[in-house]
């Protein structure tokens, strides 16, 4: 399995060193582009759509965390590479698959890349399951596959009230008060659920517009769902959400 990667670091020597280590010890990783500041990093991520990003935290101007916040979706895996060890908690918030300290140790780098290989393999299996669901949908009402740590559940979209993100996991809240915790991040479900009337109203929430009871304008504004859950609405999504709910 080939993993297309980009390296973003403001020091040329660090970029070259990491490239050499990957070439020698992680041959499944193919470096498709390199960036030396946050803007270059954003440009190459949007252009090459990599599977993996090696990202330095401290860079002139915007740092690595600010770069990630500026992207519309974090669909790729992230390995932070930094000379400082105080950023671990922030790295977790961005669901980083690993956190490497400079100078990079070869076995740490190999362990981090192996985690990416395993996760990408799981994504491939999930895609196969989605293809199976499409076949099932030819003769039955549409269903989606929700992968948990123990099983794969096949659920009708109409039964889902909303989805809630928690790092690399997604919790599905159903209309029978049941919750299902998926081992996949929420952004992977956004395009899958879109055709069934689901809307991304917040970084951490996707809602089924057919289960919206009201849009409450007080207390900063939130969506009241049929199960009485209160779902926040991001400021930058309000206008689009208003149009989609009409």
Automatic annotation (TrEMBL):
SMART domains: LytTR, REC. Keywords: DNA-binding, Phosphoprotein. Pfam families: LytTR (PF04397), Response_reg (PF00072). The modification 4-aspartylphosphate is found at residue 56. Residues 4-117 form the Response regulatory domain. One of its GO terms (molecular function) is DNA binding. Gene3D superfamilies: 3.40.50.2300, LytTr DNA-binding domain. The keyword DNA-binding applies. Residues 144-246 form the HTH LytTR-type domain. This is DNA-binding response regulator.
